[in-house]
Amino acid sequence: MKNMWMGIICAVCIGVAIGMTTKPAGSMLPSGAVLDRLVNESFKNVDSDQDGLIEPYEFDTLIIVADKDDDGCMTLAEYKNFSAGTPAIATMIYKHFDTDNTDCLQVNDVYDQFNLMDSDHSNTVTLREFESYYVKLLHTLFNTATVG
Ligand SMILES: [Ca+2]
Ligand SMILES: [Ca+2]
Ligand SMILES: [Ca+2]
């Protein structure tokens, strides 16, 4: 009886391991329900007054909120704590914006992203606008990652 269960558990292990090896090292591009949850939770992280829209001031305060020690820099460690994504995804997003590799992101570094998100220039970002920005960003990151 015990052996049978061990066999089933091992088969599951091997199945998972094979599934992993067909994907790029490190992390998989989220899709389906996982992506939906990631988009929704990330949106809520930014929408601090929870009215279903991201306003410019909320985008400004994103880094200030994540900057736990208030030294004016959001470090990778601080971003990982704040981000709704897995540590692997958070690291990819962080490095994408920390182009000079100083482990310090400031409001100015990400400020122009608001305009990229607000595709209809209404000065607010809806969940739909945020989702299309986020999906595009993830695709950029994963394409870059698989080349290197
Ligand atoms: Ca809001
Ligand atoms: Ca800090
Ligand atoms: Ca808009």
Give a brief rundown of this model.
The protein has 148 residues and is an all-alpha fold.
Q: Using the coordinates above, name the CATH class.
A: Mainly Alpha
Query: So what's the overall shape?
Result: globular
What average pLDDT do the residues reach?
A: 85
Q: Which range best describes the helical content: under 10%, 10-25%, 25-40%, 40-55%, 55-70% or over 70%?
A: 55-70%
Task: Catalogue the unreliable spans.
Answer: 15-25
* Largest sheet composition: none
**Structural class based on helices, strands and sheet pairing:** mainly alpha
- Give the amount of beta strand, in percent: under 5%
Total beta strand runs: 0
Which series of helices and strands comes N to C? HHHHHHHH
Attached small molecules: calcium ion
What's the name of the CATH homologous superfamily?
Answer: EF-hand
Distance between the termini: 47 Å
Number of helices: 8
What Rg is obtained from the alpha carbons, in whole angstroms?
18 Å
In the CATH hierarchy, what is the architecture at level 2? Orthogonal Bundle
Oligomer: single chain
- How many structurally independent domains? 1
CATH fold annotation:
Recoverin, domain 1
